[in-house]
Amino acid sequence: MRFFLLALLLVSTPVWAADSLIPKLDIGKGGKCVEEPQWMRKNHMHVLLHQRDETVHQGIRDGKYSLKVCIECHASTKDDSVIGRADSFCEGCHRYEAVKIDCFECHSSKRKSSLAQEASLVQKESK
Amino acid sequence: MSDTNVQRRQFLKTSVGAAAVAIAPGMLLFDMAHGKTEAVSSKVRWGMLIDTANCADGCNDCVKACNKENGLSGGLSPTDSQWIRKVELKDMRSGREVSLPMMCQHCAEPPCVDVCPTGASFKRADGIVLVDKHTCIGCRYCMMACPYKARSFVHEPLHDQKPDVPRGKGTVESCTMCVHRVDKGQQPACAEACPNKSILFGNLNDPESEISRKIRTVASTQVRADLELNTGIRYQGI
């Protein structure tokens, strides 16, 4: 019986481990995405790449996909950023997949309208 | 024609009409909310006319506004980016002194674009000369080619850039004529900040624009006009 339990434990361990390894992301404000989340997980890099050329070279700034809009919804409500922590919206997955993100060497990773700052101001006022 | 057929036609007509009425305002609202969707065109050529007579000696407001708008440090060391700088000129014979802001001249025939090996340095259809930092490899040929010393190289990693103005280490950058503001219908930060209104921004291709009318009536100069680059920035009084 003891041997059986041990065997069961050994067999089931990888399943727990895999579960705990999947990144838990802080999705910020969240809300309805411009596409289905599953589609975005697979294709976000393609749409960003396509639209950046239109924006930089042709000045079309109101396209459907925009890094700034991603950040506006998905930056953490704690630090207004999509990178920097293990559960940050961009960095969480990219660390898990071991894919380097170059975007934020130039682009701001923070949302323009700071939610974290507002929250801390509200906290200060309420104190 | 049978009666049912006529009725059917009538029904189709009314439903198409109703659909048009229902959709049209939505499309209108969509257009209004999203601004313009078309690409910039060569019908417009953005330029500036700088009146050096009004440009106050020692005033640095345009430079400060540029630094603030674009998130530049404002430092003056050889490795700090300068997109616009104040230049003081003095005619040694007469002693006449002129002060003027100097930046990317947004040439119609830009040498920086000619030499760029990757196509990162480019001129937009509306005449604004930019660097596509996604393709810039940081070779700095454009910096050597520019007769106005208008471009800077980013030597150090940067943090907390402005969301509208991405900048990064290893790429060349220069005055963008505040392209993110111009696309929204605003003026460049320097033109807006000038206390004496000596920077006039406008469309050089529109004969009725204020800048075109002024260029027709007063004498203006292109810096290093001998190079025939047809600059978008013109100076008055030098």
Topology of helices and strands:
The complex is a heterodimer of chains A (127) and B (238).
Chain A: H1 2-21, H2 37-58, H3 67-74, H4 89-97, H5 103-106, H6 115-126
Chain B: H1 3-34, E1 46-51, H2 61-70, E2 84-90, E3 97-103, H3 111-115, E4 121-123, E5 129-131, H4 141-145, E6 152-153, E7 172-173, H5 179-182, H6 189-193, E8 199-203, H7 210-217, E9 220-221, E10 233-236
Parallel strand pairs in B: 1-10
Antiparallel strand pairs in B: 1-8, 2-3, 4-5, 6-7, 9-10
Which structural class is indicated by helix and strand composition of chain B?
A: alpha+beta
Number of helical elements of chain A:
6
The CA-CA distance between the termini of chain B, in Å, is: 82 Å
**Count of separate structural domains of chain B:** 1
Percentage of residues assigned to helices of chain B: 25-40%
Briefly note the structural class of the backbone of chain A: mainly alpha
Share of residues in strands of chain B: 15-25%
Shape of chain B: globular
Beta content of chain A comes to: under 5%
Poorly predicted residue ranges of chain B = 26-35
Rg of chain B over CA atoms, rounded to whole Å, is: 24 Å
Helical coverage of chain A, percent range? 55-70%
Counting DSSP E segments of at least 2 residues, the number of strands of chain B comes to 10
How are the strands ordered across the major sheet of chain B?
8-1-10-9
